[in-house]
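RETRY 2/3 - previous attempt timed out on the joint model. Re-submitting the same 483-residue input unchanged.
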Amino acid sequence: MSTPDGAPTAATAPTQGYEQAREELADVVRRLEGGGLTLEESLALWERGEELAGVCQHWLDEARERLAAAAPDPSAP
Amino acid sequence: MTAPSSPDQPWPVRTVARKVADWIGRLGEVWVEGQVAQLSRRGGATVFLTLRDTAADLSVPVTCHRDVADRPGLALTEGARVLVRARPDYYVARGSFSLRATEIRAVGLGELLARIERIRALLAAEGLFASHRKRPLPFAPAVVGLVTGRDSAAERDVLVTAARRWPAVRFAVEHCVVQGPSAAAGVIEGLQRLDRDPAVEVIVIARGGGSVEDLLPFSDEGLVRAIAACRTPVVTAVGHETDTTLVDHVADVRAATPTDAAHRVVPEIGEQRRLVDGLRARARSLVTGRLEQQERWLESIRSRPVLADPQRLLAGRAEDVAALRQRATRTVTHRVDVAGRDLEHARARVAALSPAATLDRGYALVQRADGALVRDPAEVADGEALVVRVAGGRLPVRVDRQDGTP
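RETRY 2/3 succeeded.
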């Protein structure tokens, strides 16, 4: 069962920007919670949701690293 | 009148000298205002002094009788501003010109201030003091020009204070005399040299306190005009806070003291560093705040059952399937049971209807050739072949009515 658009795994830099992934993830969750899906659809949607969450996590982790790398906390002497 | 001179008939020196003397004499008696530059009383009855113009850089020799110079209450000293009544005098013997003074008056303090006020009014009318001319000072100038007295307290205050506030600042210092008749010219020269230097971003004119006379050069019209003409912004720190000289009016910024001037021209590095650090911290906390907010959002979305616990979906489905299977099984079982019971009934009925049991009980069935059961002897004809079925089997028989009963 391949994911709908064959997005690369989270390990490589995701092509999607953070906001884009976040919007799609919110939509996936809405549809899953809406129900009325075939087993196949809900499974595929769930996998897509996991992948999108991975993308969001990637961007947030990267932001966290860049923030830390940029400068140590200014209150440091 | 002597004949006009020509190469052929040149005039002797005495004639020329006399003519010059006549011409000069025509000026007549004048009142002259100026500043005493040099003063020498060595000449016995005659006193020699040089009278300098208050604004322009030029002067004229003045001679007078000692009584005129030593008039009581005059207190004639170098640097004093004076009014002189004099006649032009051409000393033919040596061909030297001087003003022969017959009366000298000191220009009093009141007079001085009035004079300054007149100059102020004049320059103000020209708009030299207009606020729109005032230019903003550069935030952190790399090079600060300084016009001041050599090794003066003012110089030290400016240099030390500025360096403490902004260590990176560099100075271009022009030393000059800050008192007396040549002071104004000296300041102007230093000022213009700094103004020409493109590296100098702001010029400070600094001088310690002093009397009105001491500060007079700083109300000099020429100096004020020179400042007005400057390309570089000018900060004045002249005299005590309470003193006001004309340069203060024309300057871009008037500092109360040399130290204050240093505060005006360079920022305080610690303060700037705190400012910058503050801004960096605020930027960092804004970004961190936004980041945390998004992390919380992601966490909440991931904890939603549909994502966190997909088994629930499957489980739901599995339960549905299991439930369906159960129902199916139950239904089938039920149906089988019913079928079984029906079969039983049918069998029972068959059994009940079935002749076997009857036969077992000793009854017999009679069937005609076509299988029809014989219920009434009348139905059969004599000699008809019949079959008798008893529990054990079948008997072929033939009808033999001996007694002729139908």
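Confidence is low (pLDDT under 50) at residues 6-10 of chain A. Closing ticket.
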